[in-house]
Amino acid sequence: MKSLHRVGYALGICTTIFLGACSSTPMDASSVNASAAAGTATTASPAMAAVTSSPAAKSPLAPHADPASLLFQKRSVYFDFEQSNVKAEYTPLLEMHGKYLAANPGLAVRVEGNTDEQGGAEYNLALGQKRAAAVVAALKIYGARDAQLEAVSWGEEKPKATGHDEAAYQMNRRADLAYPAK
User: Fold this and answer.
1) pLDDT digit string (tens) for 64-93?
2) H or E segment and range at residue 71
3) Which of 55, 60, 101, 177 has the CA that lies 20 to 30 A from 85?
4) Cα–Cα distance between 155 and 117 in angstroms, integer?
């Protein structure tokens, strides 16, 4: 019985150390803006540097509304069949959007979870919500605040592709970031 308590105690310590090592402190908007004004990069991400490093704006539009911006072009996270875990390949995209939201606290985004047409309507709504929630959680890691984020599910109601084959299904298994149309 004593050895069981020791194992449990050791597991608790290991878990605490592991979780502590994985945590990060989000940057506040003032430090992001100060670094950008000083001309230093705030991230190692080239995508984020492309969004924040242009002192002379090439477009009168905000980056999330400018069709030439990566923030406008890269807004979808795709998922595997019946999955809601975010793939590592989307880390740079989510980092870019999360840090952009952190630097713009007055801006909000709606994360819209979508599914393919396979499965029942209730199942697809629940899966779409899980996908949206997973993307919201990732954005918060990079500094986005709860008040800026809304997770909704469209289930199979808003397909990106209308076919009935695997290629179309893959395009519909996604979560989209929808910024306000201002």
Assistant:
1) 989 999 999 999 999 999 999 999 999 999
2) helix 70-73
3) 101
4) 8
Dihedrals phi, psi of 43, to nearest 5 degrees: -140, 165
Question: What tens digit of pLDDT does each residue of 109-161 get?
Answer: 999 999 999 999 999 999 999 999 999 999 999 999 999 999 999 999 999 99
Please identify which residue in the block is written with the tokens 């793939």. Answer: 87
Distance between CA 16 and CA 111 in Å, rounded?
31
In CATH terms, 2-54+62-178 corresponds, of 3.40.50.150, 1.10.645.10, 3.40.50.360, 3.30.1330.60, to: 3.30.1330.60
Ranges of each domain in the chain: 2-54+62-178
Question: CA 118, CA 65: separation in Å to the nearest integer?
Answer: 33
d(CA 113, CA 137): 13
